[in-house]
Write a structure and sequence with these properties.
The structure is a single chain. Helix 1 links the parallel strand 1 and strand 2. The radius of gyration is 12 Å and the shape is globular. The longest helix has 11 residues. The chain is 38% helix and 21% strand. The protein has 72 residues and is of the alpha/beta class.
Length: 72
Amino acid sequence: MIAGGAGITPVRALLEEMPGDVAVVYRALRPDDLILREELEELARRRGAALHYVVGDHRAGELLSPDHLRRL
């Protein structure tokens, strides 16, 4: 699942309930913009889910490009 900013809220609910292997990519401009971070990390730890933070200005590179997503 991929979420950005406040769009993480429904993804957080899905992370708690969705069966199977789950990976979450959470996009934000700055580290301070990562809401629910501690809660997400705890949920991911309990579920064994992969949680990736992509932080920075999209103009600085190829954030969330197909190659970047494959590397994650």
